[in-house]
Every structure is written in C-alpha cells, then in structure tokens.
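Sample 1 of the test manifest.
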Amino acid sequence: MNAHDEDRIKELLQQALPRIDTDTDADAEPDRDLWTAMLRRLSGQSGGEHASLPWFDWALLAGLAAFAVFYPVTIPVFLYYL
Amino acid sequence: MPDESSSVLDDFRQGSVTAFEAIFRQHQRAVYGWILRIVRDPAAAEDLTVECFWRIYQARARFDAGRRFEPWARRIATHATLDWLRARRPERELTAEFLADLPAARAGDPGVNAEIRRKTADAFMRLPPRLRVAAVLAVVEERSHKEVAEALGISLTAVKLRVFRALRLLRKDLERQGITP
C-alpha cells in the first residue's frame, strides 16, 4: 500500500465515521448520573466480601466440628488427611 | 504536575469514598468522552465508564500521586474498552441508529455515497480490536501518536504499525466488496 492509498483510506474512514468532539458535542456527556451506578458497584463489592464463603462450606465446617467434638479420636485421622 | 490537590489524591489512595467521588465527578466526562470515541455507543460508553472507575478504585494503591491522574485514567479506560471489544462478537452489525448518524460526505467527494460510507464503517467494525482502537484514535479522532501510545501502553512505532495494518486490512476488505479506494 503506497502513501496515496493510505491517504485515500484515511479519507474514506474519516467520512464513514463521525469525529466526536467532546467539547462541543452535547451527546458526549452521559445521559444519567453514573455515580449512582458506581456506588451500587462499590456496595456490591463490600457485600460480596461478606458472602464470599457459600453456605454449604459453613455447613461442612460445622459438621466436621460437631464430629470432632463427639468423636475426638478421629481428630488425628482428619489431621493426617489435611 | 498533579491535576488534583494532593490531599484528595492521598485520601483516594487510602480508600476514601468521598475523595473517590470528587475525582469521579471531576473526570467522568473526560473518561466517558474518551471511551465514546472508541466504542461509538453511548450506552456502552456509560457502562464502560463505571467499569473503568471501578478498576481505578481497585488499582488506587498503585497510583503515583506525583503524576497526573488523567493519563493514568485514560490508559485504564482504553484497556477496559479493549477488553469489552474483545469480548464481543467481531462481526457485530451496526445499529440503524449508528448508521443514521453517519456524517454527510465532505464537499469535493461526490463519489463517496452513503453505501460506500456504510460499507467502510462495517469493514472497520470487523477489524481486530487492538487495530481498531489505534486507528479510530489516530485517524478518525486525529489524536497524536504519542497520546495513543500512552493510552495503549505501547511504543510510538507499535502505534504506527497498528494504524498501518488497520488501513491495509480495511483496504483489502473494501476491495473484496468491490470498492476500490
């Protein structure tokens, strides 16, 4: 591709796609308050940290703890397989 | 020269949501505008602006308070946008709304009709995302190669190469459709 071809393609592209001027174009501004969405994202993350361990993991841990209390002799077996 | 008061940036780095909101409100328009230039879809640009600031918040500890915030945010925005473009179907059809917004042919180019412009825009959307981003910023938006290189985190030579490859692929695609530029 020579320089003339390159210039011609650039010209075609500039005609095909509108240049967006964010200083003057009214559409170059969000339609909604994005901070609200940002806050939702932030609070979702802080909620997610607390819910990061599924309930069945807690149930399994509780079961193992109860088993260890009632049958303490099995503790070395559990430790061996950890 | 930093473009924020250092106390706001320090608080932001410590995780203060109040400082983050101040930074968000000051820079959201610029970040949104930058993303809009690349994706050309206002709804997607809004979502990506939130995604970008989310990444900024997560990466706050890595921000160097001695440097300007905007170029750093722009780089994160560009990468978030690239990830989004990669995740989408490459052969995405252009929306009717987008096509209706195509500008009129410039004076002196009566041969370039709406059909050719549509096919050019279509072919452009089929380019690989990393080439498309470089070309839209450097050719369509006429940003300097240096600015594009900073936003993409690549060298000037790599920007020139990506723009050249984008234009070459575009030419081949148009030729396949019977359009000789």
